[in-house]
Amino acid sequence: MKIGNLLYTGKAKDVYSSENNDNVIIKFRDDITAGDGEKKDNLQSKGECNSLISSKLFEVLEEKGIKTQYIKLIESGLILSEKLEMIPLEIIVRNIATGSIIKKFPFNKNQEFNPPIIQFDFKNDEYHDPMLNDDIILALKIANKEELKEIRKISLQINDILSKFLKKKGILLVDFKIEFGKNLNGDIRLGDEISPDTCRFWDIKTLKTLDKDLFRKGEGDVMDVYKKVCKLIVSEEDLKKNGELIWH
Ligand code: 5GP
Fold first, then answer.
1. Pick from 59, 99, 105, 69: which is nearest to 201 by CA?
2. Quick one: 195 and 97 in the same domain?
3. pLDDT value for 246
């Protein structure tokens, strides 16, 4: 498949045009950032690893009826996706109290949220991604009431589907960040990625961190853990087909 022009470059991914105007090609890079972009590194094979994990999780969601931008994995590191106009919201779903929420509010560390908490942050580097409420979202015209309701509903469904899938793989889904966009027909679709860069994954037995918190805190070998997560989530067949560069 021919990769077209670079349309957009983010902190860890690039978006290219494809032969079909309705689609884009997303390249997962090895760059990793934390702390509002202050901490940066480049971890060999991270892009390939995350593209395989994200592909699998988007496939699981599509099988359960969630509409996403995902079309197919072209090869490790490259995903063909439907073109979306992204909504500048970071939707954070939390099952367990950890991370920024326990710094901002008097929750007990590791307390369970049942029902889960949905938090909206404004995806805006200039304003440093501040937390929003519904009225601010409506006033800024980021989304309308119906769209917000739909986004909440789909986010909870995604939490349910992924929590169950990951539990079977020995992973606890603690919290995660997702993003939505609108396709050329104006329909809302799940976009972006779902990977250890965007989720908190804990080992279900030991509660050990299996995600980007290792990089944020400067603990342990980040890529060792990402590869472990990849092996737990992606089938052996898909790994053999697409993962040679990562594993050898
Ligand atoms: P927290 O707000 O506790 O730092 O993050 C909550 C969850 O959302 C974590 O799983 C974290 O990885 C994810 N998250 C929140 N903001 C961002 C962001 O700007 N980029 C990425 N990659 N993940 C985010």
1. 99
2. yes
3. 67
Residue type, 151: I
Report how far ligand 1's centroid is from the alpha carbon of 100 (Å): 9
Looking at residue 105, the DSSP 8-state letter turns out to be S
Q: To which residue do tokens 């949905």 refer? A: 118
The CATH number assigned to the domain holding 234 equals 3.30.200.20
Domain extent for 180: 85-203
Give 245's pLDDT tier (boundaries 50, 70, 90): low
Measured from the Cα of 212, ligand 1's closest atom is 12
Kindly give the distance from the C-alpha atom of residue 176 to the centroid of ligand 1, in angstroms, as a whole number: 6
CATH number, domain containing residue 159: 3.30.470.20
Contact 190/154 with Cβ under 8 angstroms?
yes
Q: Which atom of ligand 1 is nearest to the CA of 90?
A: 16
> Which residues surround ligand 1 with Cβ inside 6 Å?
90, 92, 99-101, 129, 175-177, 197-200, 212
Same domain? For 147 and 44 the reply is: no
What are residue 141's phi and psi, to 5 degrees? 60, 35
Residue nearest to atom 15 of ligand 1 (CA): 177
Q: Which atom of ligand 1 is nearest to the CA of 175?
A: 10
- Tens of pLDDT, residues 169-213: 999 999 999 999 999 999 999 999 999 999 999 999 999 999 999
Q: What is the pTM of this model?
A: 0.97
Tell me, yes or no, whether 208 lies in a domain.
Answer: no
